[in-house]
Amino acid sequence: MDNKYGHFSKDEFIITTPDIPRNWYNYFYTDTFISFTSQAGIGQSFLQDNLGKRVTPVCQRGFYIYDGKNGWNLCGLPVYEKYDDYKCVHGIGYTKIFLKKYGIETEYGMFVPDDSDSDRGAEIHYTKAKNCTNEHKCISLLSYCENETDGGYRYQGYNTDTVDFDKDINGIAFSVMLDKWNGEKKNLYTFATSTEAPDYYDCARNAFVGPY
Length: 212
Description:
By secondary structure, the chain is mainly β. It is 2% helix and 47% strand. The protein contains 1 helix and 16 strands. The chain has one helix at 205-209, and strands at 6-9, 12-15, 26-29, 33-37, 43-48, 54-58, 60-66, 71-73, 85-91, 94-101, 104-111, 124-131, 140-146, 165-166, 171-181, 184-193. The strands form 4 sheets. Strands 1-2-9-10-11-12 form a 6-stranded antiparallel beta sheet, with no helix packed on it. It has a 4-stranded antiparallel beta sheet with strand order 3-4-5-6, with no helix packed on it.
């Protein structure tokens, strides 16, 4: 199926604009870990036991880039100023989003690695950036991730769960006790880590996006 929003290329579907009437999702999963993302990086992932109980370690994620003057989203979220170039590739088991803006070409990709362990799963994300101008640019990346492992955020209520940066894993981690998982009580551990050490971090939802 080819249309004004995209076309097939071998085993991939290529979307040519992030601003489409409905999100175009790609799913990648193992037997118990399901993840999906749209042409603009919108999506989530969840673990599911053999009784259908779901836990959502990731309910939103992505990257922003800043070149010292301007900032934009690497996942292709529609913006007021159009991208100079955009392409989203939905393949079997992976998604890649290519952008060009302010002379910087970027590639953002994600996939779910195959894992036979029924009690775990993971998303792998990567980014690449290339300065295509003759101007010196100092590029910074800001990653974000929201989870619902301990229950959804409640706008009218007390949200007292906390998390902190763990230097041993170069990321953040916390655990939650599940009343029933595959028929028994179990501790669930979730974490987000990076190959690069962060310059700073913030683990407070309200401080990052505000209460509204």
